[in-house]
Amino acid sequence: MEEQNMKxxxxxxxxxxxxxxxxxxxxxxxxxxxxxxxxxxxIDSLTFQSATFRGIIADTSGSGWILNGKxxxxxxxxxxxxxxxxxxxxxxxxxxxxxxxxxLAFSGRTTTSIQLMHSTTYxxxxxxxxxxxxxxxxxxxxxxxxxxxxxxxPRMYVLPATEIGLASAxxxxxxxxxFDPVKQWIKKxxxxxxxxxxxxxxxxxxxxxTTTGNPASNVSSANPYQLNASCSNLDTGDTYYVRAxxxxxxxxxxxxxIYSEQYxxxxxxxxxxxxxxxxxxxxxxTLFSAKAKWIPGLGQKRWEVDCGIVGHIPGxxxxxxxTTSDSIEITGLTPGITYTVYxxxxxxxxxxxxxxxxxxxxxxxxxxxxxxxxxxxxxxELRTTSATIKWTPGSVSQWRWQILFAKASESxxxxxxxxxxxxxxxxxxxxxTDYKFKVRAVCDRQxxxxxxxxxxxxxxxxxxxxxxxVSLDLITSQSKIQIYPNPATDEINxxxxxxxxxxxxxxxxxxxxxxxxxxxxxxxxFGKQAKGIFIIKIYTDNGLQEEKIIVE
Length: 552
Known about the structure:
Largest sheet: 5 strands, antiparallel
Radius of gyration: 54 Å
Oligomer: single chain
Low-confidence stretches: 11-27, 60-64, 84-90, 94-102, 210-214
């Protein structure tokens, strides 16, 4: 306090000496200074948009000066280009009761709430004048400066987007606090872009929630101001970055753009996810088919379906088909086999979703015949008027079969004969004639009331010779023809000496003669498509030889 009083006394002495010196002039001007003694830089009550100025005025006894005005001029330019004389833009001061050789403090009125800009440096000087108008004689103080504090901007944030679709989403945000008075919100809403941290007015897309207007009242964290907007025409399967923003106006021309932290979301792509809930309708499963269905993902309109024996790799099954329906009939299956089915979405020729995942309902087993079909029909002891037809039972429990037999040129009878051995020996046949044969197993049910039947075998055809050319006695091991390799790939070799081959028959697993050769041969080629078990029947001058060959 004593130091402050000492400064005041020194100031008074300086002012008095200056006044005295001026009094010696023909016309003595009063002295005016900013009150930096009691106030920092002569500024009182400084806010981010207003201030109160303080000054000191003194005069010596003299003539010619009648105080007609006093106040302060301020500018962002230290040269005060717009204040060559006190005019309408000045801040007037209060009027003291008198002035004279004793310094007298005075203050200007506080600037209005919209007059200053926040975070800005201003220059200030006080003045007094005599007279009025542009010809008034003016005395200026020293120049001081001050900087307005930064305004505390509204606090806002973005909430997660909702209803994200293929090309649209709903955006949400909140303004939960306003700290310093805002004159006006110029704009508020969202900006979004595929680039990170989108900025207003730089090519990003704006979604305005309001137009120019006054800010919401009573905005607080307990009662936030909500921002909501919908964006559309987005690119499918792309990531977008979103920020809420406000353009606020604190003063006459002072504007700020405030952004929230960014939030990102990704639009849905039809092939981003595999179809869901793939399953096979158990009621649709038959011997040869089943129906698969699934729930499409958003935007999915076309699918690939693949089905194969359990354990197969997706895309490598035995059944493959494209469809535009969310269900499909899978056909061409084998009875009693367990399969799995996969589905994936197809967006174009190069873009697919992942294959669907396995679940308990993507496994299914086709129905089995109640009675297993027979296998491997073949002919033994073929003569001009008789033959012996044999087959392999479908199961060891089978003991009865139904057969159909007729010339190839005639129709089968509507009901066939029942036999109790897996062998049928028709006689009284016509030589050099084609005959056909079918057989199916008859299986007993436990109730002994109703029998069940297997499926009919494929139609087996054989041809009676025009004459009995050789004995049908089996040849001995000493005169056998050696056949190799076995198993074979697509070709077998014959090794023999002093043996004359009259005829050779190649018979497949269904008992069908697929080739007949009437000459001596050393090699036989099956062909690349032939696979399975074959019977080679060789008629020679020594008798009949039968060999089983496996072709892999």
